[in-house]
Q: What sequence folds into this?
């Protein structure tokens, strides 16, 4: 009788899980089919000037690759602006070397961090303030990104073709170690499967609007209308906060995959990954505690439960439960497969997907603990 009761419980749970997975599968498919790709937009009649803005703090491992790729853009009118945010490594020396031979590269030194600002937001604010007023487009990129020579041309073409005020491209994430494969896929998976990006292109829906700070191309007029990074000076996840504010003001957002054009290696070690996601995850939910706990527990049930049910029903020899669990597992793999395809991530991520979900849940509760105990530190600065 106990086994029968357990199987009935599994069956009841699986029906809810299956309904949820069908919805997420459809949403992921719509994102895949409808989101534009960089390189598919027609060239505009005129190419407006662009300032590419790069905040950098202790980025000696990344800054040369990033800046060199930006200077190699096949775009007619652009400049690159890098702000060294009090780096303690070789970042200033590398930037001085690069700028000595390149007039399009402008290197700035950060002013002291004011009270109430977070470091990256202050750096981006200073960069935007230093760009000449006649430059109409601002592209913010992170120092750990690098770019195909056609990236800027394709980004501007897409911005103009879709009449967007903000274009954000999700970088193709490089995952070279097992630790990276078990953590970094969380970002593209969450955005491409759970956000109705196909809908928020047309409907201003702040809660479900998204942007990635690794690549944000703004019309300067729209950026200034929001108040720029000063409007989100205290926000840990400033990119999502800017996207939500833009949607609230009726601005047009375009989020698309940057596969083949924008690349990023977010973290180089397990410690970096834990620290990075520990800083960000709880803030993505605007520190809504009950919502945050519910979402992560539900994701565990929905994406790990079918695997457990599959094993349970196989050992209990329940054909009905086994069939439902198998369909649910296939749906989870289909969702991950579409995300891997859209984002250009390593194919090995697909068979690792259940472990990635488990590690993401652990990271989520680590982030919660870090925030509640005020122990979050990023690049030598404590975040409260």
A:
């Amino acid at each position: 009788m106990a086994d029968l009761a357990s199987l009935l419980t599994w069956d009841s749970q699986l029906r809810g899980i299956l309904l949820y997975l069908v919805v997420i599968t459809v949403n992921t498919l719509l994102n895949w089919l409808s989101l534009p790709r960089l390189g598919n937009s027609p060239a505009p009649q005129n190419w407006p000037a662009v300032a590419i803005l790069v905040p950098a703090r202790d980025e000696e491992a990344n800054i040369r690759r990033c800046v060199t790729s930006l200077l190699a853009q096949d775009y007619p009118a652009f400049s690159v602006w890098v702000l060294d945010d009090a780096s303690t490594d070789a970042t200033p020396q590398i930037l001085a070397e690069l700028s000595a031979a390149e007039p399009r590269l402008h290197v700035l030194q950060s002013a002291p961090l004011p009270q109430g600002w977070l470091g990256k937001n202050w750096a981006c604010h200073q960069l935007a303030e230093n760009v000449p007023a006649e430059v109409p487009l601002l592209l913010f990129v992170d120092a750990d990104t690098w770019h195909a020579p056609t990236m800027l041309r394709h980004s501007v073409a897409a911005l103009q073709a879709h009449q967007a005020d903000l274009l954000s491209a999700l970088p193709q994430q490089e995952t070279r170690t097992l630790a990276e494969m078990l953590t970094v896929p969380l970002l593209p998976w969450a955005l491409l499967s759970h956000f109705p990006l196909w809908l928020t292109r047309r409907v201003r829906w702040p809660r479900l609007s998204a942007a990635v700070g690794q690549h944000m191309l703004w019309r300067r007029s729209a950026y200034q209308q929001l108040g720029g990074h000063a409007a989100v000076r205290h926000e840990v996840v400033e990119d999502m906060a800017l996207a939500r504010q833009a949607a609230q003001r009726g601005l047009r957002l375009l989020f698309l995959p940057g596969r083949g054009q924008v690349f990023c290696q977010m973290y180089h070690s397990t410690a970096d990954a834990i620290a990075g996601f520990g800083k960000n995850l709880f803030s993505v939910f605007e520190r809504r505690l009950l919502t945050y706990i519910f979402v992560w527990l539900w994701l565990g049930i929905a994406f790990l439960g079918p695997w457990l049910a599959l094993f349970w029903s196989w050992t209990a020899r329940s054909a009905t439960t086994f069939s439902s669990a198998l369909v649910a597992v296939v749906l989870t793999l289909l969702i991950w497969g579409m995300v891997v395809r859209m984002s250009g991530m390593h194919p090995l991520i697909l068979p690792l997907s259940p472990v990635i979900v488990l590690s993401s849940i652990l990271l989520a509760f680590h982030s919660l603990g870090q925030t509640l105990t005020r122990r979050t530190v990023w690049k030598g600065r404590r975040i409260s």
User: Anything to note?
Assistant: The longest helix spans residues 2-34.
